Amino acid sequence: MLATISYYTHLTLLKSKPQDGPTSATLQKILLLVFLLSATAKSLVFYDMTRSMANSLIDLIFLIVFIRVMLSAKPERIHQTLNAMLGAGVILNSVIGVATQNLMQGPDTKTLTEFASVAFFIIFSWVVLVHAHIIRHATESTLSVGALISLGYSFVSTIVMVTVIGLLGI
After folding, report:
1. CA atoms of 40 and 90, how far apart (whole Å)
2. Reduced to 3 states, what is the DSSP secondary structure of residue 31?
3. What b-and-e string marks burial along 86-105, b requiring 16 or more CB atoms within 10 Å of the CB?
């Protein structure tokens, strides 16, 4: 278990490659659950439990669809890439959760201080870079192509989440 956590930590620090990671179906099921829980916990600062869970579930479904579409020409890489994104997502959600708890204090937790804005921009940039690193290896492209895909993923994912949440009335 420690080796798995160490691998995903190294992946988020760009020291490991996604193809070096585990491909276990059992691990993937565990990662799906832990990702869902960590994403829900991360957003509880901003939303109630229902909306947090809905956001997390939509994010997870969109991630799975995105990876399946992106790697439709290389289906042998789907599970390993999904595991890499999920494992890195758990680590990154934890970092974001801790940052949110420490930076979003006071009566109005929806207003960011200048320091918190810069900190969250740096964290967002790191998330994009980690996703770019994973995507570049999965698609055998350059880091800049991976970064563009990662930015596009973040943008479209946000639009899909806001749209679905709005349609559901949550």
Report:
1. 11
2. helix
3. bbbbbbbbeebbebbeebbe
Residue 2 resides in a domain: no
Q: CA quadruple 101, 56, 83, 4: dihedral positive or negative?
A: positive
Quote the domain boundaries for residue 56.
Answer: 19-168
In sequence order, the 6+-apart residues with CB closer than 8 A to the CB of 80 are 18, 19, 21, 23, 138
**Residue at 48 is within a domain:** yes
pTM over 0.70: yes
Asked if residue 94 lies in contact with residue 38, where contact means CB atoms within 8 angstroms, the answer is yes
Distance CA 1, CA 17 (A): 18
In a domain, 11, yes or no: no
81-123: per-residue pLDDT in tens?
Answer: 999 999 999 999 999 988 887 777 655 556 667 787 888 899 9
